[in-house]
Specification:
The protein is mainly alpha-helical. It contains 15 helices and five strands. The protein is globular. Bound molecules: cobalamin.
């Protein structure tokens, strides 16, 4: 496959642009941010009439400036150096920068489309920006795209597929807790004959969960997705099995089903146990209690998904991430140990859950990874 010729803005000027866009975005200065990306497009020859050069420059700015700025917004939020409001404001500005940038890139008159693609986030997935970056990249490369945005309920996705003559569905998910929903969406699309390419951080840096959940393809980023589409996806010939038991035989032990259907009861008992076993909690303010309840819900949810995909790494990586979030907010990471112990007591008859909780406990007590 031949990619459009790239006229990259210089690497060092990209670095400066990223820094400036980040500062402008967290300062919620929308017009300055838009001005920055439009000037970068112009400097890279994106507005001088050469349509291919314009597209290549726009793609570089989307993927090598706006995407890394978004990743940095996430890192700075996790480290508690910017507020949730700044993160929301910066993401809204990125969205507006994308619209402004794409608005400047012209189409060739009567250009033949390479085909139609549907891009959607799976049910419960609110991270629309990664999917939007993907959709805009495909449009720049000559595809027609139905971009459905965040959190698309699977029945509505299938109804849309049935109304459109699309070549493939591209499903995005950033949060691993959406993997069971992604599995349902993959199977539903395949059952109406549509090949599915998946991507986004939820599927793992190596795409391991994409293969496990039976997608026809996975790609690490938007250019690789465009290349995979150009090569063509081969639809699965065998019908997807019910409830994933064909590909996920471990689900027959019902551990996932038990945890997911009892998640509220499990979480409530963890909070009651924490009140008893973690004395610091008795002095918590209402806001601290609310945060703790959210953290516990998150632990139970990640535990359930780790059971679904039967992968210790999914749970231990989450525990390591939570530890960093807590430490950055001056909450002792050890406060998670009584929560894991409470779950282990409640799930004493479930060997896979106990294995995950023990691995999570070790990840919590291990020295932090060197930076
Ligand atoms: C903005 C943001 C939000 C916004 C989203 C707004 C929007 N319109 O998108 C909001 C506020 C909704 C949000 C909510 C949450 N978020 Co958030 N969010 C982010 C942030 C900062 C940026 C997301 C983004 O724009 N990324 C753009 C680029 C960087 O994404 P990308 O994955 O590299 O995309 C490329 C590839 O993955 C690929 N790709 C993507 N999709 C697809 C699909 C296909 C088919 C293919 C082939 C390829 C592909 O192509 C893209 C372009 O090359 C990320 C940080 C980050 N590193 O992403 C956190 C982040 C993803 N969020 C996080 C969290 C924890 C949450 C919440 C749980 C917070 C909370 N307590 O409520 C919720 C969950 C909501 C939900 N259920 O979905 C964590 C996830 C950590 C984890 N354990 O997995 C992150 C990593 C922040 C962090 N550093 O900790 N978030």
């Amino acid at each position: 496959m031949v990619s459009p010729p790239m006229r990259h803005p210089a690497t060092e000027s990209l670095g400066r642009l990223r820094d400036e866009l980040f500062r402008t975005a967290v300062a919620c200065d929308s017009s300055h941010a838009i001005d920055l990306v439009l000037r970068a497009l112009e400097a890279a020859g994106g507005c001088d009439g050469d349509i291919l050069a314009g597209r290549a420059a726009a793609e570089t700015i989307l993927l090598n400036v706006i995407a890394p700025v978004q990743a940095r917004v996430g890192t700075e939020w996790a480290a508690n150096r910017i507020t949730v409001a700044q993160e929301h404001g910066a993401s809204a500005i990125s969205d507006r920068c994308i619209s402004a940038l794409i608005g400047e890139v012209r189409r060739r008159p009567h250009e033949r489309s390479r085909g139609r693609i549907i891009v959607a986030c799976v049910e419960g997935e609110w991270h629309a920006l990664p999917a939007r970056l993907l959709a805009e990249t495909l449009i720049l490369r000559g595809w027609e795209v139905d971009y459905l945005g965040a959190q698309v309920p699977t029945p509505h996705l299938v109804a849309h597929i049935q109304q459109r003559n699309a070549d493939a569905v591209l499903l995005s998910s950033s949060i691993p807790t959406r993997l069971p929903a992604a599995h349902a969406a993959i199977s539903a699309c395949q059952s109406v004959g549509m090949p599915v390419l998946v991507g986004g951080a939820a599927f793992g840096a190596d795409g391991r969960y994409a293969r496990l959940l039976g997608a026809e393809g996975w790609a690490p980023d938007a250019p690789a997705a465009a290349d995979a589409l150009a090569d063509g996806l081969t639809p699965r010939t065998e019908a997807p099995g019910l409830l994933g038991l064909d590909t996920l035989p471990h689900l027959s032990d019902q551990e996932y089903t038990f945890v997911i259907t009892n998640k509220q009861v499990l979480a409530r008992q963890v909070i009651a146990d924490l009140e008893r076993d973690f004395p610091a909690m008795r002095a918590y303010t209402d806001a601290q209690r609310e945060r703790t309840a959210e953290d516990v819900d998150h632990i139970v949810e990640f535990l359930s998904v780790a059971l679904y995909v039967d992968d210790h790494d999914l749970f231990t990586v989450f525990i390591g991430w939570t530890r960093e979030i807590l430490v950055a907010r001056r909450v002792p990471a050890a406060s998670m140990i009584p929560a894991l112990d409470s779950l282990a007591r409640q799930l004493h008859d479930f060997p896979r859950a106990l294995g995950l909780l023990a691995a999570g406990r070790s990840a919590l007590t291990a020295p932090p990874a060197p930076r």
